[in-house]
Amino acid sequence: MKWRYSLRWMLRHIPCPGERELVSVVVKAGEPAPEAIMSRFVPGSGYAVTLDFTEIKPVKRWSEERKAAARRRNLERRVRKHAPLFADELIERQIAERPDYFYGKQIL
User: Fold this and answer.
1) Are residues 78 and 40 in contact, defined by beta-carbon separation less than 8 angstroms?
2) How far apart, in whole angstroms, are the C-alpha atoms of residue 38 and residue 5?
3) Averaged over 61-85, what is the pLDDT?
């Protein structure tokens, strides 16, 4: 795994006086900021040492069962918080009105 250190302009309310990124260096994960970055860093100058993680992990999609369980759990929590006396009836109504959503189907 690799990390990317860079020296970037970070003051959004002030226009950048030059390059938005002065220096960038790719290093092995866990290594401290290299000397090439730290030697050019001046505190208070508007440039900051930033760290980017270069490896992008694939997005994990939830199964329909897991989505359905989370949606029902969230619905129950919301309804029981605001209307505890009528919670069971309101939950049943919501599930009856939108069965696909609460059974984990993809809504486009």
Assistant:
1) no
2) 10
3) 95
